[in-house]
Amino acid sequence: FHRLFILLVHAHFISKMAAVQDGQVDLEVEKKEIKTETSNDGSGNNNANSSSPGSTSLGATSKSPTGPAEDQQTLLAVLQFLKRNKLNESVDILRREAGLSVEIDDSPGSASGGAGSGGASNSTVDGGDTNSLLSRVSIAIPAAPAVTAAPVPPKGLDQPDVNVVLSAYSQQGDPDLYPLYYNGLKKFIESVLDCHRAELSQVFYPLFVHMYLELVYNNHEVEAKQFFEKFSGDQECYYAEDLRILSGMTKKEHMKGNETMLDFRTSKFVLRISRDSYQLLKRHLQERQNNQIWNIIQEHLYIDIFDGMPRSKSQIDAMSGSLAGEAKRDANKTKVFYGLLKEPEIEVPLDDEDEEAENEEGKPKKKKPKKDSMGSKSKKQDPNAPQQTRIPLPELKDSDKLDKIMNMKEAAKKIRLGSDNLPSICFYTFLNAYQGLTAVDITDDSSLIAGGFADSTVRVWSVTPKKLRRVKSAADLSNIDKESDDVLERIMDEKTASESKILYGHSGPVYGISFSPDRNYLLSSSEDGTVRLWSLQTFTCLVGYKGHNYPVWDTQFSPYGYYFVSGGHDRVARLWATDHYQPLRMFAGHLADVTCTRFHPNSNYVATGSADRTIRLWDVLNGNCVRILTGHKGPIHSLAFSPNGKFMASGATDGRVLLWDIGHGLMIGELKGHTDTIYALRFSRDGEILASGSMDNTVKLWDTLKAFDDVELDDFTAATGHIHLPENSQELLLGSYTTKSTPVIHLHFTRRNLLLAAGAYNP
């Protein structure tokens, strides 16, 4: 077996040497290859390739340019393995055939990583501490004929199997040295200049988690527990929940059952670091020969390097906190068509009261420009808007045109809100809601309100004097004169009129509901894994959409109807059409539950918020993820787009409202004031005020007009992907309104800018 193992490794090593002998790789190219591999393996992007000509990347030295560093480390690791197992004859054969001219040092006490971080001498080397050997080993390149005559691995034992064996070996570090490695890096980072310390400190958390998981995975339970107790207190406070979950994973079997930690182990944690800070880290690990930490960085981290000044602690903290680190800058460079679609040209007839209003003093000056702008919007195409036919949208029916006319007339009468003119707030309190209110939605014209409950029911109320009626039976409909002007009234059965209706069908708590724009349909999503489409004409279930395998936390109709989106515990958001029983698109990428969904006003994009503390923006046309936004420190539960489609607000369990610029993919504001989870966000109809509702029983109003006007997105900021957030929450807070004991779970601005809020009284 050992002889076979040697032949396999020999074949792998000799094949690598062949490329060098044949003149395919020279010194300069070799350096470039090493650096490119470094960037691809998580230690930086292509920016890392522009280090100084004389510098060397981690794992290689200027004295051994004839072969990739990882191959030399592999060879030395195999030699040390054989020597440790008293296979001296095999050691001599492999050393002689590989051309190694130095005896391998295997003195006692030298284990993987050796003199890593405790300040010990670099003279004793073993295992992970192979870099110091590279400075003393000269490799004699075999002649070309010898390379061509390299032994061929036996059939059935090809190269990948060898790589699997070696990768498994590389993960077997001495558990007693893990605290030394981590502590040494900690001391180094604490000793650097303040400007670099904040950036380099980002490395602590992912390293801590992966080192702990390696110890658990390799069945070093006692050492893992000691490692956790010693260093868990050093981590940032916003990782507290992750650390709580991690502390319960003390055996290898626990890792198999935890999807979140499995994702953490298989996906790369992204760190955004300036070039100067990265060079400091690289130089330290190169000098200390800390191979165990370097292996983790290569396998599990992606270091996104940027040119420019290092970021401050506040800038880093603002963007940190997600399960997978920050987003790569490349992830937010796709062009997003955030503009609004061209409105159809519909003539708006003026009512008598409209004409009178125009003759009144004071009011027409505000209202006339609104009407003009409404007309101009239908004539001019927004340069940032997608093509009108980019995605197929349903054609407008006559009823839709009438509704748009009503909408435009209401919009002409709406109150212009601002810091000196705050909206009135009307709060709908659900009393005695012992069924457990879990979701609320209000129609665009504010005529209907619906609630989803934990007892599997959906209830719909009319909030106008007009009661809810069902369509007459088929037999009664056949007797109606279909040519009459009031046919729409005649088809409704007055005997069924009531202020509310109850919809039965789900077999689990209802977590999300959404009215269609035309008020003919209602969507509901449930723990039973289905999304149901209800008719508001017959108050019956029309379709049950089955695609999710687990609870569906949220669903929402497109602003144009027809399409809707859902997201759930399976970490996938799905795009549906009402006339298709299978999803049109599946948006996969989140590392935890998709907790909330929201359509962009132009219906070409879908935003999803997740328990992995990230927000993703998806292109409906092709299903691509075009934005990844990080910064929240807890699961995200609410999203809202500004009416012009350019900005977005998000709220989470961390009690913070974050403002985002969609075009640049940047966080541009942070609104602090809530003390509990934010479940409801809504922009006013003109976008100048943002309302936020929280589990802390308050509704807060924010001056977003000022927040957006104060932002300066220069070229440098957009290029580096970070911005300095102003501490102006108190300046932007226009008002805070407390309920008696009612958490706010939904907000809605009427067409005239009256704010409606809803929640269940919690005695």
Q: Could you give the count of β-strands?
A: 31
Average residue-wise pLDDT: 77
Q: Helix count? A: 25
Distance between the terminal alpha carbons, to the nearest Å?
A: 73 Å
Rounded to an integer, what's the Rg over CA atoms? 32 Å
The side-by-side strand order for the widest beta sheet comes to: 4-5-6-9
Q: Helix proportion of residues, in percent?
A: 25-40%
Uncertain regions spanning at least 5 consecutive residues: 14-67, 104-170, 353-378
Q: How would you sum up the global shape?
A: elongated
Strand content: 15-25%
Report the sheet with the most strands, covering strand number, pairing sense and barrel closure.
4 strands, antiparallel
Helix/strand class: alpha+beta
Could you walk me through the main structural features you see in this protein, from its secondary elements to its overall organization?
Helix 9 packs across helix 15 (275-288) and helix 10 packs across helix 16. The protein has 25 helices and 31 strands. Residues 14-67, 104-170 and 353-378 have low confidence and may be disordered. The strands form nine sheets. The chain has a four-stranded antiparallel beta sheet, with no helix packed on it. A four-stranded antiparallel beta sheet has the order 10-11-12-13, with no helix packed on it. By secondary structure, the chain is of the alpha+beta class. 41% of the residues are buried. It is 32% helix and 24% strand. It comes from Esox lucius.
